[in-house]
Design brief:
CATH superfamily of the largest domain: Vaccinia Virus protein VP39
Low-confidence stretches: none
Bound molecules: S-adenosylmethionine
Number of strands: 4
CATH architecture of the largest domain: 3-Layer(aba) Sandwich
CATH class of the largest domain: Alpha Beta
Strand order of the largest sheet: 3-2-1-4
Order of helices and strands: HHHHHEHEHEHE
Distance between the termini: 60 Å
Radius of gyration: 20 Å
Mean pLDDT: 90
Shape: elongated
Number of helices: 8
Length: 185
């Protein structure tokens, strides 16, 4: 009887490991909906419960642990590493981030409006490339995300370049922003 129980437990554990290690990552790779379900609902809720923290708080923790204060590139790198090795998060990410960098560098904008700050990843990428005196206005309607973004932006040393607005009315912002040279969604 003990042997049967041991076999069942080992078999169950092996099955769960195979699911977690190979089957789920493969499924998630090929289907956007499954990816969202897995990363954004199942894993996030599980980790929130286990760690009694939120994903943005864990992301901020990774920044504070691994990035150098006042060094925006190290903040971007710390978030990329967090998302690559620890948890998926809805940042623009490294690949699209490089495209964003080249557009910002090419346009050299004086005023940028960003719609959706989340934890401030793309905000840091954009703001760190802006010419002196240029400003980035970033909108976020979720106060919890906005609070974390504020700390990420401060850690990168970019508070003076970024104007944060806790607001959802993008039309009002677009019409109210003078000389908008670049809009990032
Ligand atoms: C994909 S995330 C942005 C990621 C971010 N740009 C980055 O790369 O780090 C989208 C964000 O937009 C915010 N959002 C969605 N609709 C919004 C609205 N109408 N006004 C303000 N924020 C909004 C969400 O709360 C979420 O944080």
């Amino acid at each position: 009887m003990w042997l049967t129980l041991l076999y069942s437990c080992t078999g169950g554990a092996a099955l769960l490991y195979a699911l977690y290690r190979w089957v789920i990552p493969a499924a998630v790779q090929y289907h956007g909906g499954l990816a969202l379900l897995w990363h954004d609902i199942i894993v996030e809720r599980m980790l929130d419960t286990l760690t009694q923290s939120t994903r943005p708080q864990r992301l901020l923790g990774a920044v504070q642990k691994n990035a150098t204060r006042g060094d925006p590139r190290s903040v971007v790198k710390a978030i990329d590493e967090f998302c690559r090795h620890k948890e998926w998060a809805m940042n623009v990410g490294d690949e699209k981030g490089c495209i964003l960098d080249s557009v910002v560098s090419e346009l050299n904008p004086a005023t940028v409006l960003e719609l959706g700050t989340y934890c401030g990843y793309s905000t840091v990428r954009i703001a760190s490339l802006l010419p002196p005196h240029a400003k980035l206005i970033t909108l976020e309607f979720n106060p919890d995300y906005a609070k974390i973004a504020c700390q990420v932006i401060a850690w990168a040393g970019l508070e003076d370049k970024v104007i944060r607005k806790l607001q959802r009315n993008i039309y009002k912002m677009i019409h109210g922003t003078q000389n908008l040279t670049f809009l990032c969604v």
